[in-house]
Amino acid sequence: MFAWLDEGSRVVRGFTDRHDGHSAGAHAGLNLGSRVADDPAAVARNRAAAAAALGVPAGNLVFLHQVHGAQVATVTEPWGPEDEPEADALVTTVPGLALVVLAADCVPVLLADPVEGVIGAAHVGRPGLLAGTVAAVVERMRSLGAVDLDAAVGPAVCGSCYEVPQQMHDDAVALVPAARAVSATGTPALDIATGVLAQLSAAGVSARQVLGCTRESGSLYSYRRDGVTGRHAGIILLRPPAAHRPGRHHPG
Q1: 172 — phi, psi (to 5°)?
Q2: Cβ-Cβ contacts under 8 Å for 223 (sequence gap 6 or more)
Q3: d(Cα 7, Cα 237) in Å, to the nearest integer?
């Protein structure tokens, strides 16, 4: 279920994979996306399983209607599917809410200041990288009191697998030079995760990267590889102070 899970502090965060799920066919596995034409009952079971693994009610998983932009939503209470805002990042100071971003090649980013009790999650693809999603979520978290932020950057399509047209490459690299890459066949490509890491560093946020290429790994969903597919997730949860306990770190 979790390719990587960190329970080392008040903050629990992890990146899911395709294992231990109830979806079938093109979405086979732990698909957590509700907008990919999967069986809604299977998605509900998958989400309930992920919530149970984190020790929260399924209704406390907070999702977005992701649109490849830089909008940030501040969460104060759970919302239903009909109330999901169009945004690509969300933040909260409320313990017990599990913030979720979905991906199938894009970069999931999980940010936290455990001491101040501020967490955030962002979905960053090429449009979001160029639009400034990383800077926007960091700014919002600092406005809520975050001081010492760190981030976990999840698996995404690697630079060797993300071939793009020359003009798209040039336009992106002009804004984010760190995203420059060359594909396995020598054509122009982009490395979005490396671009995200560079933007986090520029914003003064320390980061760790959980390696893994979505296109190369059958344990992860990849739109670029499969077209019709499911979505894995980055999930982050803030425990109440009294719930803190010495944690475990499960590298994937």
Answers
A1: -70, -45
A2: 104, 105, 229
A3: 10
Assign 199 to helix, strand or coil: helix
Q: Which residue has the tokens 């979720």?
A: 100
pLDDT in tens, 165-189: 999 999 999 999 999 999 999 999 9
Overall residue count recorded for the chain in this entry: 252
CA 64/CA 58 separation, integer angstroms: 15
Q: Percent of the chain beyond pLDDT 70?
A: 96
Nearby residues of 132 by Cβ (< 8 Å), 6 or more positions away: 70
- Which one-letter DSSP state was computed for residue 156? B
Q: 109 - beta bridge partners?
A: 122, 153
Contacts of 2 (CB under 8 A, 6+ apart): 14, 15, 16, 17, 53, 250, 252
Token duo for residue 172? 């992106």
**Is there a contact between 145 and 124 (Cβ–Cβ < 8 Å)?**
no
Tokens 């100071």 found at:
93
Residue linked to tokens 């400034």:
132
User: Are β-strands 98-103 and 61-62 bridged in parallel, bridged antiparallel, or unpaired?
Assistant: parallel
